[in-house]
UniProtKB/TrEMBL annotation, chain A:
It is a multi-pass membrane protein. This is ABC transporter permease subunit. It comes from Promicromonospora umidemergens. It comes from the Bacteria. Its main location: membrane. It is found in: Cell membrane. The lineage of its organism: Bacteria, Bacillati, Actinomycetota, Actinomycetes, Micrococcales. Residues 96-297, 380-565 form the ABC transmembrane type-1 domain. Pfam families: BPD_transp_1 (PF00528). Keywords: Cell membrane, Membrane, Transmembrane, Transmembrane helix, Transport. The chain crosses the membrane at residues 106-130, 142-167, 179-199, 240-259, 279-300, 326-346, 388-412, 424-451, 543-567.
From TrEMBL, chain B:
Residues 9-224 form the ABC transporter domain. Belongs to the ABC transporter superfamily. Pfam families: ABC_tran. This is ABC transporter domain-containing protein. It comes from the Bacteria.
Length: 584, 226
């Protein structure tokens, strides 16, 4: 939509201010009466009389309404005062800052791992350039590495390396040895993603004409390689920022698994204890880190490209070629395995405590039983529904929201940018702290990060549809503008948008499972993948199958997520190419 | 009779601007023009002179930046007013790409019927479509096909039927033959000229082809602004 820029700027300004206000007013927004929870936490002997509650509200500074609460908090922050905890009454500052220090250290370690993994993935692609046989894609290794969500990888590493092999300590933050596993869990998926992006960028840069010209001119390989890498890095540096911000979000799960006193675990603790001042401080520090990362990537891009480039000056990336047969096979296999679990598990009962506790897998109980003696096959199968049905709902709502906001155009730009930069886990933590943990809250958090890409796509599709010659000419046939929208523009827009939404389904399911794993989503005894994994991990030494069963379902979904995204990626780009057939 | 003397289409000091604010640039220099019923005016000029912009404004698909357009002496569109719905049938068009005149998933007949019903309010479209098809020399059977199932020349004749059937006073054709081979192009533009002459329709014909321009009543040469 090419309306005036002023609207976009205004939208960003308004949503920025709204964000600051909301962040400051979080304690006031809390749905559960904070006074009651503070009373319980601090003065267990006191009766929750109205007078006592009112006194506490005044003490917490919640008696002035949202704006007053917000302004008081921000003026405190500007003086370097992060407030004091509702639960312990002590100052928040020192604890939050030391948690940030731990998280930054962990992120640096994870960054090293990520760079190593990315380098390992991109090297073959670079070597292919020299042999003049560029090829798209980064091969199955990159796909497999990206597929694993951090919380799953962390659990697997914990079980295999720390518990079974006993090579490294399973938890804590007491030295380099304790940092290795969390750094791997965080760094490997990030490095896999980064490596795939880079490999793709290298491959597309190699197809640019200057490479051929330089080769013909007899330039040395080292010079050409340096040029290719520089162009490819410039193309990826924007994504790098998002990957780093994603590390911050992934850190919540990893810190929880390895019991590391970082910012992520700090946030989770604050959310579980309803300690909203602590949550505010944690979110503020995380946002600060994200802004710094954003500035750093901006500087890096400037150094690599020499300033922002007006759109259209770089040649568009060449179309993805080659077949996607491997991706189709992967999707088919993962999907049929999931369906198999569903077919055998759904008729069974996931709730009754009918079996021996932690019974091993047998012909009768193919996946074994959990710690309460419930059938794990049934629980995983019903968990598939418990995870996928909310995911389908989220995707459908996101498509609707995307269509509505795409019609509004630039007005939605500010919220979209904020939502884009929010890791789903962070959104989940904040919503759980406000509303209490629930499936609905987790769904809301995942929805919050799902709508922006769909909105961008919807806007492109709407533009494309309204520019189609036959739709442009419909007014000549006396068709009203409303009818053109409803009967011609929307039917051309909704199917591709729904397809795009469905492609995001596995990713949405994984985000939901991650929140369930952290206890921010579905609550026991509901069967939900993330929750099942969290329940199983306590018994991993005695009964590894309790972890294995949900992990298998999650891995299948992860593989599905990446493979599905690999099928015909070019088709859902939503480029507004309308013209004579010969040009398409 | 007043129709003999008063123009069917009046374009008075019309200009067009693309974009807004600092990026705005003029796409059509001030243009004025009168076309009487049955007359045909060829609009010629280089690419970028604003020929298609003039066609779009006359059709009411976009509004002029300045000036106004009158149809039958009554206001049709101005910088602030779109063409009135109840007079929509008075100006019809034949597009450069005939596919633009039809909904791709419908038969040609369905698109034509919809246009005739909406524009005239008459439920029975048979006589109008039959007469228009006769004039455009198009086999009625072909109208049961979809736009992509007929040849370019047939689609352009069908687009002419679609444009003529609602009974317009003005017909705008924007390079209607540029996508056709020379012989088909000749036949299609001949049909277009004869149909409008027969029915007393004012024809605004955008063209690159000097031989087509020659056969029109007059030629209007426009050039890019500034």
């Amino acid at each position: 939509m090419r309306h005036s820029n002023a609207l976009g700027i205004a939208s960003r300004l308004v949503s920025g201010i709204a964000l600051l206000l909301v962040a400051g007013a979080l304690p006031w927004l809390s749905q559960r009466d904070p006074a009651a929870s503070v009373l319980r936490a601090r003065y267990a002997e006191l009766e929750p009389t109205p007078e006592a509650l009112a006194a506490i509200r005044a003490e917490l500074g919640l008696d002035g309404g949202p704006v007053a609460t917000s302004i008081r908090w921000w003026s405190g922050v500007l003086r370097g005062d992060l407030g004091s905890s509702w639960v312990s009454g002590s100052e928040i500052g020192p604890g939050a800052w030391s948690a940030l220090g731990v998280s930054v250290t962990l992120t640096v370690f994870a960054g090293v791992v990520a760079l190593a993994v990315a380098a390992a993935i991109v090297t073959p692609a670079v070597l292919r350039v020299l042999r003049d046989r560029p090829q798209r894609g980064s091969g199955p290794v990159g796909v497999a590495l990206t597929a694993l969500p951090e919380f799953l990888l962390a659990s697997v590493l914990l079980v295999v390396v720390a518990v079974q092999l006993q090579w490294l300590p399973p938890y804590g933050w007491t030295g380099l040895r304790t940092a290795i596993l969390p750094a791997l869990a965080l760094g490997i998926p990030a490095g896999g993603l980064l490596g795939r992006l880079l490999a793709d960028a290298v491959a597309s840069v190699t197809e640019e004409r200057w490479v051929t010209v330089w080769l013909l001119a007899g330039a040395r390989h080292r010079v050409i390689l340096a040029g290719v890498l520089r162009r490819a890095t410039a193309a990826v540096v924007d994504q790098l920022g998002l990957v780093l911000i994603g590390l911050l979000g992934g850190a919540v799960a990893v810190e929880q698994v390895f019991a590391i006193p970082g910012l992520g675990r700090y946030l989770l603790g604050a959310a579980n204890a309803q300690d909203l001042p602590a949550l505010q401080a944690g979110v503020l520090l995380m946002a600060l880190a994200a802004v710094l990362v954003g500035l750093a990537t901006g500087l890096a891009r400037r150094a690599l490209r020499g300033g922002p480039i007006p759109p259209g000056t770089l040649p568009p990336p060449p179309e993805r070629r080659g077949d996607d047969r491997a991706a189709r096979w992967t999707v088919g296999i993962a999907l049929s395995l999931l369906l198999l679990i569903l077919a055998f598990g759904l008729p069974r009962d996931p709730y009754t405590l009918a079996h021996e506790r932690l019974a091993p897998p047998s012909a009768d109980l193919p996946f074994g039983a959990d710690a309460s003696g419930r059938d794990l096959l049934a629980r995983v199968a019903h968990g598939t529904l418990g995870t996928l049905l909310p995911s389908v709902g989220i995707v459908l709502v996101a498509v609707l929201v995307a269509l509505l906001l795409a019609v509004l155009g630039e007005i939605a730009r500010g919220p979209a940018e904020i939502a884009n930069a929010t890791p789903p886990i962070l959104a989940g933590v904040i919503i759980a702290a406000l509303l209490g943990p629930s499936v609905g809250g987790a769904a809301l958090a995942v929805l919050w990060v799902t709508w922006p890409p769909l909105t961008a796509h919807a806007a492109a599709l709407l533009d494309e549809a309204s520019a189609m010659p036959h739709i442009r000419w419909l007014p000549l046939a006396g068709v009203s503008r409303f009818e053109i929208w409803v009967r011609h523009v929307l039917p051309a827009t909704v199917p591709p948008l729904l397809r795009h939404g469905m492609l995001r389904l596995p990713g949405v399911a994984l985000a939901l499972a991650a929140l369930g794993f952290l206890g921010l989503g579905a609550q026991p005894p509901l069967p939900e993948w993330g929750l099942l994994l969290a329940e199983g991990i306590d018994y991993v030494e005695r009964a590894p199958w309790t972890t294995l069963a949900p992990a298998v379902a999650l891995v299948l979904t992860s593989v599905l997520a990446v493979a599905v995204a690999g099928i015909r990626r070019n088709r859902r780009d939503g480029g507004a190419i309308v013209g004579p057939k010969s040009l398409r | 009779m007043t129709t003999r003397t008063s123009p069917a289409l009046t374009i008075a000091g019309v200009t067009a601007v693309h974009g807004r604010g600092a990026k705005a640039r003029a796409t059509l220099a001030p243009t004025s023009l009168d076309i009487r019923p049955g007359e045909s005016v060829a609009v010629v000029g280089r690419s970028g002179a604003g020929k298609s912009t003039l066609a779009d404004i006359t059709l009411g698909l976009r509004l002029p930046a300045e000036g106004r357009v009158l149809v039958g002496g009554v206001e049709w569109c101005t910088p602030s007013a779109r063409p009135p719905r109840d007079r929509r049938h008075l100006v019809q068009g034949v597009p450069q790409d005939p596919l633009a005149a039809f909904v791709p998933r419908w038969t040609l007949r369905r698109s034509i019927d919809q246009a005739v019903r909406r524009l005239t309010g008459e439920h029975d479209t048979e006589s109008r479509v039959r007469r228009a098809a006769e004039l455009a020399q198009l086999d009625l059977e072909l109208l049961e096909r979809r736009p992509t199932e007929v040849s370019g020349g047939q689609a352009q004749r069908a687009a002419t039927v679609r444009a003529v059937a609602p009974g317009p006073a003005v017909l705008v054709a924007d390079e209607p033959t540029s996508a056709l081979d020379a012989r088909t192009a000749d036949a299609v533009s001949a049909a277009l000229l004869s149909v409008t002459q027969e029915l007393g329709i004012a024809l605004l014909l955008v063209t690159h082809d000097p031989s087509v321009a020659e056969r029109c009543t007059r030629t209007l040469r426009i050039s890019a602004p500034r």
